[in-house]
Amino acid sequence: MPVVLAALAIPGWAHAAMARDLLTAAPPAAAPDMLGSTCSAVHGQMGLRVSLMFGMYRPHGKKITKQEWSDFLRDTVTPRFPAGLSVFQADGQWQDRETGRIGHEPSHIIWIVTPPIPDLSDRIAAIRQDYRTRFQQQSVGLSITAGCSSF
Fold first, then answer.
1. In sequence order, which residues have a C-beta less than 8 Å from that of residue 99 and are 6 or more positions away?
2. Which of 21, 105, 121, 129 has the highest CB neighbour count under 10 A?
3. Widest distance between CA atoms in the chain
4. H-helix or E-strand spanning residue 49
5. Distance of alpha carbon 9 from alpha carbon 142, whole angstroms
6. Which range marks the domain in which residue 89 is found?
7. HSE-up of 53 (CA within 13 Å, CB side)?
8. Residues 140, 54 contacting (CB under 8 angstroms)
9. pLDDT tens-digit profile of 139-150?
């Protein structure tokens, strides 16, 4: 079973030392043997699955256009992960930090499979910061899990 290393959408996550600790944390003792042997059997490699969650509305309800989203992917995400990624459309739900109200909005999830590269936390932090700034967002959701991948 994959181990969740981080599921954070809070300021301060990108602190380099904290990020390195999370990205290099070892899974529980029982998991490596089972996951490792299965991974070897399918000719896979251990790595990380990064999921980034993006709301598609700005404050006050203005939708982020398809062209704006495409530009963001091209200019911000792809240069940091040129080896590949997947984008999924989703229906998001979130709680406004200021009002406490529950909101619903169309969302996108970017899914990246990567080895634990030294500057991974910097790449992720730059993507999240650019999106928050460019589209006036309170946060960008993040989940990182360890696992096996084979392509």
1. none
2. 121
3. 51
4. strand 45-55
5. 6
6. 3-149
7. 17
8. yes
9. 999 999 999 998
pLDDT (tens digit per residue) in 60-106: 889 999 999 999 999 999 999 999 999 999 999 988 888 999 989 99
Gap between the Cα atoms of 80 and 97, Å rounded: 29
Q: What length does the chain have?
A: 151
Rounded to whole angstroms, how far apart are CA atoms 84 and 45? 16
Give the total number of structural domains in the chain. 1
Residue 10 per-residue DSSP state: S
Q: In terms of Cα–Cα distance, which of 149, 140, 148 is closest to 7? A: 140
The H-or-E segment that residue 133 falls in is helix 120-134
**Residue 90's domain is classified under what CATH number?**
3.30.70.120
CA dist list (Å): 19 to 52, 80, 132, 133: 15, 17, 19, 21
Q: How far apart are CA 56 and CA 33, in angstroms?
A: 40
User: Taking Cα atoms as reference points, which of 111, 95, 117 lies closest to residue 144?
Assistant: 111
Q: Are 101 and 94 in contact (CB under 8 A)?
A: no
Output the DSSP codes for 91-121: EEEEE-TTT--EEEEEEEEEEEEE---TTHH
